[in-house]
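**User:** My hope is that you can spare some time for a protein that puzzles me. As I understand it, each token names a local backbone shape. I would be glad if you read both lines and explained how they fit together. The protein I mean follows directly.
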Amino acid sequence: MNSIAKQSVRRPSLKVVIPVILFCTYYPYSWLILSKGSWTAYRWTWIKMWPVLPGISFRAMFFHHLLDSLTLAGMLVISVMLVTLVIYVASRRRWLFAVIAPLTFILSALNSMVAYALYRA
């Protein structure tokens, strides 16, 4: 492989990819701590669920009939798989990182709207 081919396959650093993707994934749920209102036990329950909230749409669509402990475990598995897959794909090429990060933010914001609707319901 010559030097020209090596330069075209530059990967972004994981030191950049991981924090940016985690920010894009979890920042849209910041309404949990930034919204006005009292800090009730219900709100604290949602704050404790923050790490698994990327899987909330799957719960709403497929797991709504299961027990809460099973659905939280399913949401955790789905969230870990999604975040891992996005980090892996974004770390492959710089142009993929430039596409994946905003796309992750947009999709996470839409998912956050679903979570907010369920929170208010």
Notes: The mean pLDDT is 88. The chain has one domain: 12-120. Residues 12-120 form one domain. The helical segments are 3-8, 14-26, 31-34, 41-48, 56-61, 68-90, 94-120.
